[in-house]
Structure formats: structure tokens, C-alpha cells
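Protein data:
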Amino acid sequence: MEEPDTPPEEFLSQGVPPDADPGLEQMESSPLERELSSLKAELEQKNRELRAAQDKQLRAFAEMENYKKRTARDQMEQLRYANEKLLKELLPVLDNLDRALSHIRDSSEHSSWAEGVELTYRQWLEVLKKFGVTPIPSVGEPFDPNHHQAVTYFDTNEHPENHVAEELQKGYLFHERVLRPSMVAVARKPSRSPRGDEPDADKDNQGENK
């Protein structure tokens, strides 16, 4: 006895058409896969754009922070050295007091006037020190072109070569800046005349004696 054919309605209730092709399901899923791949690529592109935007924002933030720091540093620098011109104008007064003291030390005068000059000089130094002005060490120190201005050189054995042998005018620092360089004389080794010159000098002396 032959089995009866399955009615088409039963195939439809099962979701499979009566004449379904086995490769049809795969063909119908291909557009969906293509759309999914397209969405993934678009998502990756958006992620790259987001990362680039975040990096750009971080760089802009860092530049702004650096700008703020530079501005604050420049303002502090201006405030720190705001009195530079005024303090520089006061140095000649200090020089005159220093010269007066040197004259007093060289002389035998030791009066109340001399003590007053020395006290005034020390007070000037203390006031300037409060504002960041300090003398530059010179005599006996190695010559430093950043702090010293060489006025002359002279031969001496009392100081090493290229060391400051004498201070002609005091120099001062204003915090880390040179307010005025020291005017100095720099030591160098005494030059010795060759022995060959000595007999000539002796001959000249002998000739004068004759």
C-alpha cells in the first residue's frame, strides 16, 4: 500500500517550501553577511576616528597646560627681577662707600666718622641682600668670563695663572643673574727673558762703563 503524499499545507507549516533547494538558505544569508561585514568595517573606522579625536584632544590639553606653566613662570620671573634697574642704579652709591672705607683702612684715622661709614656700608649690604643682591667673589678665584670682566693682566707669583689677582670694582649678583660683573686684574706667570739676551745687556753695560 503506497503512503499518501504530504499535503502542501504541512510543508508550509514547517517553514520549508515543498520544492526547497538545499543551497537556497546559504544564498539568502550572503547579503546579511555582507551587510554585517560592512557594519564591522564602519565600526572600526569610527573607532579609529574616535581614538584620533581623543589623541588630538589630549595633545591640545597638554599644550594648554604647558602654556599656562610658561606664562606663570614668566610672570614669576618678571616679579623676581622687577627691581633690577633700581638696584643697579644704587650700586655707584655703594661703590663710593667702599672707596671711603678703603681710604680709611689705608690711613691711620679711626674716628667715629670712620665707624659710621663702615656701619652705613654694612647696612647697605644687608638691605641689598634682602632683595637678592650679593657680591661676586673675585680675588683668588679662577677667572670666570660670566662673572668677571678682565681689565688688565699682570705678572705675579702670588696667585695661580688665570686667577683674579686684584679686584678693581666689585661685581654683584641679583639672584642668579649678573647685576654687574666684577672688573678685575688677572694673574699670569712672569715672563722670563732668554739667557741669550743677558750677555748683550752685559756688553752694553761694559760699553757704557768704557
